[in-house]
From TrEMBL:
Major subcellular site: nucleus
Single GO molecular function: rRNA binding
Pfam families given in the database record: Brix
Keywords attached to this entry: Nucleus, Ribosome biogenesis
Protein name (Swiss-Prot/TrEMBL): Ribosome biogenesis protein BRX1 homolog 1-like isoform X2
Location in the cell: Nucleus, Nucleolus
Gene Ontology CC annotations of this record: nucleolus
GO process annotations (BP): ribosomal large subunit assembly; rRNA processing
Keyword Nucleus tagged: yes
Lineage: Eukaryota, Viridiplantae, Streptophyta, Embryophyta, Tracheophyta
Family membership noted in the UniProt record: Belongs to the BRX1 family.
Annotated gene: LOC103714952
Organism of origin: Phoenix dactylifera (Date palm)
InterPro entries: Brix, BRX1
Positions of transmembrane segments: none
Amino acid sequence: MGKKRKHEEASEAPKKQETAPMRSQRTLTGWKEEGIETQNDSPVFRNKEKVLVTCSRRITYRYRHLMLNVVSLLPHCKKDSKVESKESKGATLNELVELKNCSSCLFFECRKQKDLYLWMAKCPSGPSVKFLVNAVHTMEELKLTGNHLKGSRPILTFSTNFAKDPYWKLLKEIIVQIFGTPKDHRKAKPFHDHVFVFSIVDDHIWFRNYQISVPHNETDKVDRGGLDKMTLVEVGPRFCLNPIKIFAGSFGGPTLYENPFYVSPNQIRALEKRKKAGKYAKKVKAKTRRKMHEMSNPLEPDEFADMWKE
């Protein structure tokens, strides 16, 4: 009989903790891991701005067409499905922006199927702005003669009023980052053939889109001195932005600025109803005054009233 071998007790290796690794921090120039850029260490800034464009449920067709016009003007944007307009929409939108790998968001919020609000937000740390959109005219409504290449980069122009106050400077910087198409974007074309005009009139931001038209000859070349004859032809769409509040965070947070001249559309409609109610009250008072006047001043009896009754 052979001797039995002694089984050596195998030392069990300690189990590794199965935890997800920490996500690296996302920036406009690449991804950071422990404070080191993984994309490239070159000092040249590369704009990787991407904008998420979405809307709330129960939006009207005119406002939906406006959103689609804005999407067609921004080649660096991404569309998403509709989001429920609730108090928790900020967290939902921030999560969608992160899933879509975007850095900004344009959210068209429709309330009561009458009022349109536009949120411009830098995600996930802010700031964000809430606008009331007025004077909406889509490309389908205007039918203007202007036309430009789809996906071309626009020239952004601002009126001199944007350098007047600090909050206008902040709004200008947010608009530049959201509406400015990155130079090396894969969907953008390296041409400048249209202009986005943002002008401040009566504390409202008015948006216009113009085509840069240059006269050409038969061989499709610019005539000598043709650059001095450049004209602007409007393309569309048109809309007006009334700033309501500027928040420090994304879709909320501390209020940096609040417009003191803002009047909500609900208050405007309530005043119109009161005016109509005032007209009806005036009619009722006039009717009662007429009755009191007839009672106080009765007509004299007519002598010939019963002459033809016989």
